[in-house]
Amino acid sequence: MLRPSLLVLALLALSSLFGLSTVQAQDAPALGKIKKADTVAIDCSECVRTLAKAADIAEQELTAWNRFRLVDDPKQADLVFIFSANPYTGDYLTRKGADERPVKVDGTILTVIDPHTGEELWSDSKRWGSIRIAGETKALIDELRSQLEAETKRWGLDDVLDCNGAAAYQVFAFLTPDAALAKSAYGVRAADDAPNRLTVNSPSAPDFCRRAQLLVGANNRVSGYQVVAFQSDSLDVADVLEHADRFDFSSGKFPGTQKVYFIAQTKDRKVSIQFDVQGRRTVLSRVNYYY
């Protein structure tokens, strides 16, 4: 690990040479809903013949993307990814039984819907033939990912620090997970695969931290909250380094990989900002806020 002074110099050089250059874009309403989603269910119920492999490929691609949490029950999902050979007709909530339209498997259609309303949020197709279902599925998910990542939201350091001590999350300070879940009016939800991981969506919190996860410490108490950055969230490293005197810096590599990260932690240990280094890019990864 580099000494703090050397690390700051290295980060300054990195920022100068490879710093992110992003433009804030206006979200289309449908894409905005997808960006805010946390959980996804895959629906391949109409996948016949070779199209059936789309489900497994989609699961692999979404797991590798690590943007959404996969769930089995569509009723517990924020989004449903429907794979089909025929176009979606908007009848997700009203259709009774199987789709009776004739099916010709000559490609793959991906439709992303809101399972609670049936609204179509995004759709595209690849018609490369029935033997190229795997490639079509991968290409469709890659296309959606590219569109989401192109819609960049650029945050400033003040936006991030404004979440420190946010009143919307102080109510959970040092509660047990069960006590936090009991505050149903605050929209707390436990992850299906990790009961101690609690998600909160608070419209009264500052913009950057409206969607957060409560951090549960070793003593089984909520010790703070975490914002996991979307691929479309950007914080310029230079904004942090301009205020280097307010932070302690550390760096390291993820176990078993050569991937590098560095952390800027406020002197009072209340805020920890993590960046991941991806090639020539510095990418905002997550921010922890502690009580």
Description:
The chain is built from 8 helices and 15 strands. Mean pLDDT is 85; it is low at 16-27. Helix 3 runs parallel beside helix 4. The chain folds into 2 domains: 4-24 and 152-290, no CATH class; 29-150, Rossmann fold, CATH 3.40.50. The longest helix has 18 residues, at 133-150. 25% of the residues lie in helices and 29% in strands. The strands form 3 sheets. Strands 7-8-9-10-15-14-13-12 form an 8-stranded antiparallel sheet. Strands 2-1-3-4-5 form a 5-stranded mixed sheet, covered by helices on one side. The protein starts with a helix and ends with a strand.
What keyword list fits this structure?
291 residues, alpha+beta, Rossmann fold, eight-stranded antiparallel beta sheet, five-stranded mixed beta sheet, 25% helix, globular
